[in-house]
Structure formats: C-alpha cells, structure tokens
C-alpha cells in the first residue's frame, strides 16, 4: 500500500477547508437533508478537478457516524453494502472535527492510518478490508464514503 496511484495502492487524499466547513455549517443549521445534494455536487466538482479517479455515472455519497469503545469489524471496500444496495467504495474522507483513524488490512499486513479533518483514503479497485478505528477518546467519527453501486 502506498500513496502512488495504481491498481493495488491506497492513496491519501484531502478536501479543501471550505468544503469541510460547509459540511459542518449544514449540520449545525439542521439543513443536511436539504443541502446535502448541493454539497455533494461541489464535492464531485472538486474530484473532477483533481482527477483522482474516474467518477462513475452512478456515484453515491453517504455520510456515516459511528461511535463505540472498540474498533469496528473490517469490511471489504469492493462488494460493500450501502443504503441503496451493494457496490464498491472508492474513497472515504474524515468529516470529523478531530483526527480519526482508519484501519486497513490487505494480506499479510494490517495498518492504521491517522487522518486529519478533511483527509481521506482512495481505495484500489481490487479492494481492501477497512473500517474506522478508535482513536484516543474520540466518541464519534463522521466519515464520508464515496462509492458506486454494482451493475451486476
């Protein structure tokens, strides 16, 4: 795993501060349900500008908040369950206002990557096992998952 682009690599990515700030403004104003689509469109425009990966026509974005005292069970990024079906996670981004950890496992190793607010990981097409992992005393991790639904 490395930061270089390629079929088997995990790459570290980041979003600009204004998109992270806008997310929290939506949350604090209770306008997530009405403003999420507009915010997601801005995110897509940013990803297209950066050309990190080819955005599929059926791109989806889900925000999940998880808490707990233990590391979560690792799930696969390729054939991952989303709210609307099964697909592939292309990337995840830490939307929390503090550092978060993502645990990754790809045989034969398991690593934990610390992500600052707005930082994320881009997953390889072949997939990895991953999940948010506890970090210090964090009680809630807010993560944006970017993916696409399977066509098969």
Low-pLDDT windows of residues: 1-6
Radius of gyration of CA atoms, rounded to a whole number:
15 Å
Portion of residues within helices? 10-25%
- Biggest β-sheet, characterized? 6 strands, antiparallel
Count every helix, treating DSSP H or I runs of 4 or more residues as helices. 2
What is the CATH architecture descriptor? Sandwich
**What is the strand content?**
35-45%
Strand tally: 10
Distance between the termini: 28 Å
Mean pLDDT: 84
Question: What this model shows, in words?
Answer:
With 152 residues, the chain is an alpha+beta fold. The protein has one domain (11-149): Jelly Rolls (Sandwich), CATH 2.60.120.10. 20% of the residues lie in helices and 41% in strands. The chain contains two helices and ten strands, in the order E-H-H-E-E-E-E-E-E-E-E-E. Strands 1, 2, 4, 5, 8 and 10 form a six-stranded antiparallel β-sheet that branches. The chain has a four-stranded antiparallel β-sheet with strand order 3-9-6-7, with no helix packed on it. A hairpin with a 2-residue loop joins strand 6 and strand 7 (109-115). It is globular and about 45 Å long.
